[in-house]
Amino acid sequence: MRHTIFDTPVVRQLFLLISWIGLKLTGWKLEGKLPAKRRFVMIAAPHTSNWDFPLMIAMAFCFRIKVFWMGKDTLFRGPMGPIMKWLGGIPVNRSAPGGLVQQVVDCYHTTRELVVVIPPEGTRSAVQKWKSGFYRIADGAGVPIALGFLDFKRKVGGFGPMFKPTGDYDADLINIQAFYASITPKHHAKY
Description:
Elements: H1 11-26, E1 29-31, E2 39-45, H2 52-63, E3 68-72, H3 80-86, E4 89-92, H4 100-110, E5 114-118, H5 133-141, E6 145-151, E7 156-163, H6 169-180
Parallel strand pairs: 1-7, 2-5, 2-6, 3-4, 3-5
Antiparallel strand pairs: 6-7
Helix pairs in contact: 1-2, 4-5
């Protein structure tokens, strides 16, 4: 995959320091261990706030992990486009999602290290059910799913357990969502 802020010399160290200080000053703590594997899909849930993004970036620096993340294509328009891509962004056209899953699966097949962060809700708004793209990517690429979280009640974020897709999405989703039952989002009405 491409060069990002996470592997830019000097900037990487500066943002690690800024992230660490920022999390300390705001009372956020890291929880869990960075997975030993360097190829996985990471769920970013619950996703209900604009604060989720800077917290995710700060925690990625503190865990010392290079992440790519999916965001709506409108975030990548204009002068912010190159910056968002440098931050690890992958633009997603939500009105024409065809082929995106296979493109990401192909990236996993051609790289030794790749972590893609995907909010399963697909939006900060309230949804009735999660989108299945995160699961189809992990299953198609043969990589595990890291259960990443931000718990606003406890001010803790990090990694839960790793989950290996079995191919039975409905059954696996029940187990995955059970982990998130005790996680408190920033906006309860949106989750």
